[in-house]
């Protein structure tokens, strides 16, 4: 492996990751493979021998950030020609984007997409041995590649992907084009991965998929997501199970029952609504109405009153009128989300919504966004306030970023808690008395 005469003994790598947990997981896999190759991870670009940018393309600003970074890397590459620069992820999976990068930033050594990240060690060796660049974007998804080493950030909680891709084709979304069709992992592989994590001391896992409620529909025999939840709930030594994302059209009663009945499955449901207007939901191809969505919320709240419900909401979808937007505002007020990711619609080349004529002007999008954020922040603060004075079970994740004397962890409902406590508690479940609620977190003291 140490083939180049200019090699120093220990090679270091730096990874910058944009986007969702899927991208985070891909970076953890790249890191896992690199560590097996003898590379050491560094948290700074300076002096790194290899820099990887794992890109996102869900919204335009994610792409702009990549261009900004590449500008700075050009100078680094000029000063250190041995530096290897690799670009991967969703943005590279789009043909026109990869072509653009090759043209504008010819100093990039390796370009690959989302379907062939597992081949990265091979690409790296080619660049190092042959001093040439590698561009390989696979058009179609391959089957699932199991057994790739994963270098996880946390030692307490881990993301575990249960399915890849998406079949939904919401008209604004680029994900189905860059991540391919739905493919579910075999439940035995998922279970084995979680058992291995538990044996290493992990206490919480989050099951990941673009639409976890479709899990197992492509398996023979079919497996329901609720069955998977119940199966994982039986793993000894595991404390908590979370999952995301649920699509409102597919979240069935058996999943709500599994959340209610499985002691390890936490009372937190992420249920992206996107819009509160039936007109816009239809144009988004979401396949549910505002009424159906609200019915689902009431069903969850009736069965699991303490459940935290979070969402994704978008403003400024093409054709969104002031009345449509007000319906979204009213829905957010009615549901009173625990928290929400709020987005301004961003045109994505190749998606049906990009071709719609009635694009909403930027100033109106921003004005609606600000009004929405205000409503969402109000309900987050209100939901947090309920916790004041309560004693909550917290899984301690580590030292708090607020103050190194304090610890941080989360409630079962996913609320971030900064608290005074015993450093030995990291990685354990503890009881914390919540003294104060803030807009986006809680504070308290271990008891
Ligand atoms: N513009 C803005 N937001 C988007 N999202 C997906 N595509 C776009 C887009 N083109 C948001 C959706 C989704 C979340 C992950 O990102 O709200 O649920
Ligand atoms: Fe995109 Fe819709 Fe699939 Fe979510 S469900 S990834 S928003 S296409």
Automatic annotation (TrEMBL):
InterPro entries: Elp3/MiaA/NifB-like_rSAM, Methylthiotransferase, Methylthiotransferase_CS, Methylthiotransferase_N, Methylthiotransferase_N_sf, MiaB_methiolase, rSAM, rSAM_horseshoe. CDD domains: Radical_SAM. Residues 385-447 form the TRAM domain. It catalyses: N(6)-dimethylallyladenosine(37) in tRNA + (sulfur carrier)-SH + AH2 + 2 S-adenosyl-L-methionine = 2-methylsulfanyl-N(6)-dimethylallyladenosine(37) in tRNA + (sulfur carrier)-H + 5'-deoxyadenosine + L-methionine + A + S-adenosyl-L-homocysteine + 2 H(+). Residues 11-129 form the MTTase N-terminal domain. [4Fe-4S] cluster 1 binds at residues 20, 56, 90. [4Fe-4S] cluster 2 binds at residues 166, 170, 173. Catalyzes the methylthiolation of N6-(dimethylallyl)adenosine (i(6)A), leading to the formation of 2-methylthio-N6-(dimethylallyl)adenosine (ms(2)i(6)A) at position 37 in tRNAs that read codons beginning with uridine. Monomer. Binds 2 [4Fe-4S] clusters. One cluster is coordinated with 3 cysteines and an exchangeable S-adenosyl-L-methionine. It holds the Pfam family TRAM. The gene is miaB. The lineage of its organism: Bacteria, Bacillati, Bacillota, Clostridia, Eubacteriales. It is found in: Cytoplasm. This is tRNA-2-methylthio-N(6)-dimethylallyladenosine synthase. Belongs to the methylthiotransferase family. MiaB subfamily. GO terms for molecular function: tRNA-2-methylthio-N(6)-dimethylallyladenosine(37) synthase activity. It comes from the Bacteria. Residues 152-382 form the Radical SAM core domain. Its cofactor is [4Fe-4S] cluster. Its EC number is 2.8.4.3. It is an enzyme of class 2 (transferase). Keywords: 4Fe-4S, Cytoplasm, Iron, Iron-sulfur, Metal-binding, S-adenosyl-L-methionine, Transferase, tRNA processing.
């Amino acid at each position: 492996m140490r083939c180049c005469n200019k090699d120093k003994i220990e090679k270091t790598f730096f990874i910058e990751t944009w986007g969702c947990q899927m991208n985070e997981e891909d970076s953890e896999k790249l890191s896992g493979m690199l560590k097996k190759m003898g590379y050491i991870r560094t948290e700074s670009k300076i002096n790194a021998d290899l820099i990887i940018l794992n890109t996102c393309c869900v919204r335009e600003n994610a792409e702009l950030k990549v261009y900004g970074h590449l500008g700075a890397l050009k100078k680094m590459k000029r000063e250190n020609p041995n530096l290897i620069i690799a670009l991967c992820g969703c943005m590279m999976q789009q043909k026109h984007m990869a072509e653009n990068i090759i043209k504008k930033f010819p100093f990039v050594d390796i370009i690959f997409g989302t379907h062939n990240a597992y081949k990265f060690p091979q690409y790296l060796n080619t660049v190092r041995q042959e001093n040439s660049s590698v561009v390989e974007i696979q058009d179609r998804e391959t089957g699932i590649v199991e057994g790739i080493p994963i270098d996880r950030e946390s030692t307490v909680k881990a993301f575990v992907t249960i399915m890849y891709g998406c079949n939904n084709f919401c008209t604004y979304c680029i994900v189905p084009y860059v991540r391919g069709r739905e493919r579910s992992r075999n439940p035995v592989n998922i279970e084995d991965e979680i058992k291995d994590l538990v044996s290493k001391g992990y206490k919480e896992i989050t099951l990941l998929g673009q639409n976890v409620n479709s899990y197992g529909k492509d398996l023979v025999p079919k497996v329901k997501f609720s069955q998977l939840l119940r199966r994982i709930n039986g793993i000894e030594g595991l404390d908590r199970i979370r999952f995301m994302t649920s699509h409102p059209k597919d979240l069935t009663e058996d999943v709500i029952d599994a959340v209610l009945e499985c002691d390890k499955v936490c009372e937190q449901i992420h249920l992206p609504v996107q819009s509160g207007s039936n007109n816009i939901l239809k144009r988004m191809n979401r396949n549910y109405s505002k009424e159906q969505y609200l019915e689902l919320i009431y069903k969850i709240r009736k069965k699991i009153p303490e459940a935290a419900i979070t969402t994704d909401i978008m403003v400024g979808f093409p054709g969104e009128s002031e009345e449509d937007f007000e319906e979204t505002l009213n829905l957010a007020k009615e549901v009173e989300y625990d928290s929400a990711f709020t987005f301004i619609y961003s045109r994505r080349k190749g998606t049906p919504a990009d071709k719609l004529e009635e694009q909403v002007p930027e100033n109106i999008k921003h004005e609606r966004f600000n009004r929405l954020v205000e409503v969402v922040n109000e309900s987050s603060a209100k939901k947090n306030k309920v916790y004041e004075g309560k004693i909550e079970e917290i899984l301690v994740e580590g030292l708090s970023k607020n103050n190194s004397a304090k610890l941080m962890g989360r409630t079962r409902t996913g609320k971030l808690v900064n608290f005074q406590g015993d450093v030995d508690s990291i990685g354990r479940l503890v009881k914390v008395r919540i003294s104060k609620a803030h807009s986006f977190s809680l504070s308290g003291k271990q008891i």
